[in-house]
Structure formats: structure tokens, C-alpha cells
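Pilot study result, target chain (204 residues):
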Amino acid sequence: MTTSQPEQPTGMQLESVQGTPQHAGLQDWNVLATVRQGGYRRARRLLSRFGHVSGSGFPNVLLMQVMDGRLLLEELCREAERQPTALECLGRVIPTNIAFTFSSPEEFDTLALEAARAYLPELAGKSFHVRVYRHGFKGRLSTHESERKLGQGLQQALAQAGTPGQVRFDEPDVILAVVTVGNRAGLSLWTKEEMRRFPCLRLD
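Predicted structure:
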């Protein structure tokens, strides 16, 4: 995940979710964590050491509000070094740095592309693909269809900018992660080096 804040596109209201105050609830999350079966209490206890944790309303999904998502992942790696089984209760842990709300699948697709355009400089000349992790809008929001539309939209935008990128599913340079909980979505971009360094991302 890039350490600098991506430039937000004009014409839409996006939320920057890095570095906001820690006293936040469900609506201000900037980390989504999934929990392995039977590990909810242990996961919540572990994550609460690093930020504000709340339930999501979905089974085995926790939300966090932290000051620095990358620092959280580094802390979790150090925890695993100290205690190799410490992260067994966790599935994915995905920090985000851009967020938006939506009211329909069509609006999600439109706003997701607009939000993702902030990452065009980092996608320039790179291979990439999109991963959408949906919680809510079951039967209405198609994960695979949204991934396809967003990937194609970014590929077209990169070509128009004269910095073509390539959608690739085998060892891409970067992955764009999009997570949704109800009508709120968060985005973040991760390099293959970061995905190796932070295995709890589990983006593929």
C-alpha cells in the first residue's frame, strides 16, 4: 500500500481514511478483517491492541479504525514472529485509504472507477488486477462482474493517458483491493512486494 495519499479525482466526494481519529465506530472503518471459524473472540482481542475494533453486522467480519494501515500490518507481522500461531484466528486483514458510499450496484461500479483513478500514476505501465470482497448487496452486486468492469475501466484510462497497463492474474505487479460492508466501500493498492511482506493481506 503506498505511503503517500493518492490524489482524489474531482467531481465526487471521497473520504480519506488514513490518519483519522481513533474514536470511531462502524461508519469510519479503514480496515476490514475476516476471522476464521471459531476465532472471533481471539481475533477481536488481538486486533484491539492496535486500534478501535467493532463488529460489522456480518458473521466473522470485523472492522477497525487505525491511524496507519501499513503500520498495523507490520505490527501483525512482528506479532507472528514472536508467536507463530498468533494470526491463526485471522483470515484477511485489508487496510484501505479511500472510501465512498453507494446506494446501488450501478452506483458502486461508477464510484469505484472514479475512486480508483486516484491510483493511475501508480498503475502506469504496470500489470494489475482487481479483487472485490463484498459483504452485503447479496444477489445484487456481482463480485466478478464488478472486478471485470473496474479492470477494463482502469486499463482504458491508462491507455488514454499514454501509460498503458495490463490486466494480469498471474503474478501481477499490483492488486487493487476493494472491500464493501453494506453500502460503504474502501480501496487500497498493493504491490507484489507488499503482498509477500504482509501475508495476512491474502488478496489472491
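One observation from the pilot: The beta strands are 15-16, 31-35, 52-55, 61-65, 90-95, 98-101, 127-133, 166-167, 174-181, 184-191. A full batch analysis is planned for the follow-on phase.
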